[in-house]
Amino acid sequence: MLLLLVGIVILHIAALVLLFVSTIVSAWVVNPASSSDLWINCNTLNGVTKCDTANTGVWIQAVQALMILSIIFSILSLFLFFCQLFTLKKGGRFFLTGAFQILASLFVMCGAIIYTVMNSNWVHPSLFYGYSYILAWVAFPLAFISGLIYVILRKRE
């Protein structure tokens, strides 16, 4: 049982780290001369890098909010898991923990979908998706799977 709990916590922390990296690192769209993310756009010209704040359009703010909410709900889910681990009765399920983690996965999915749809209107065709964008999509199934595991998991002695 201990190995199962450790595995679930590692999966949860891996999803949380992916959410942090994908939200903070400036690599949602890249090419050799520029990179952009949810917060900042950087261009390199003649060896000089210039960074400006990201477009303040409504859609980018929605993506920013959804990614932040996914991090918050994932952190709350981890906190709730440890609280329920010590307070839940024997045989009880971790429904609240699983619900928060599934919500976190749905938030990151919605944010990545909005970014994908609106990206064609905003980004030059010479740019391609960077690793932070890909990490956001990888974090979605990891968070969703860990949420499902929490819902299925029963507390044992």
What would you say this structure looks like, in words?
Keywords: Membrane, Transmembrane, Transmembrane helix. Pfam families: PMP22_Claudin (PF00822). 66% of the residues lie in helices and 13% in strands. By secondary structure, it is an alpha+beta fold. The chain has a five-stranded antiparallel β-sheet with strand order 4-3-2-1-5. Strand 1 (29-31) and strand 2 form a beta hairpin. Helix 1 (2-24) packs antiparallel against helix 2 (58-87) and helix 3 packs antiparallel against helix 4 (131-152). The chain is elongated.
- As a percent range, the share of helical residues equals 55-70%
Taken in chain order, the helices and strands follow as HEEEEHHEH
CA-CA gap between termini: 9 Å
- SS strand fraction: 5-15%
- Counting structural domains, the number is 1
Shape: elongated
Q: Name the strands of the widest sheet in spatial order.
A: 4-3-2-1-5
Summed up, the helix count is 4
Helix-strand category: alpha+beta
Low-confidence stretches: none
Give the tally of β-strands. 5
Assembly form of the protein: single chain
Main sheet: strands, sense, barrel: 5 strands, antiparallel
Mean pLDDT: 87
Give the radius of gyration. Answer: 18 Å
Short description:
The protein has 157 residues and is α+β, with helices and mostly antiparallel strands. The chain is built from four helices and five strands.
Features:
elongated; 5 strands; PMP22/EMP/MP20/Claudin; 157 residues; 4 helices; 13% strand
Question: What topology emerges from the helices and strands here?
Answer:
Layout: H1 2-24, E1 29-31, E2 34-36, E3 40-45, E4 48-53, H2 58-87, H3 95-122, E5 128-129, H4 131-152
Antiparallel strand pairs: 1-2, 1-5, 2-3, 3-4
Helix pairs in contact: 1-2, 1-4, 2-3, 3-4
InterPro entries: PMP-22/EMP/MP20-like (IPR050579), PMP22/EMP/MP20/Claudin (IPR004031), PMP22_EMP_MP20 (IPR004032)
Protein name: Peripheral myelin protein 22
GO cellular component, one term: plasma membrane
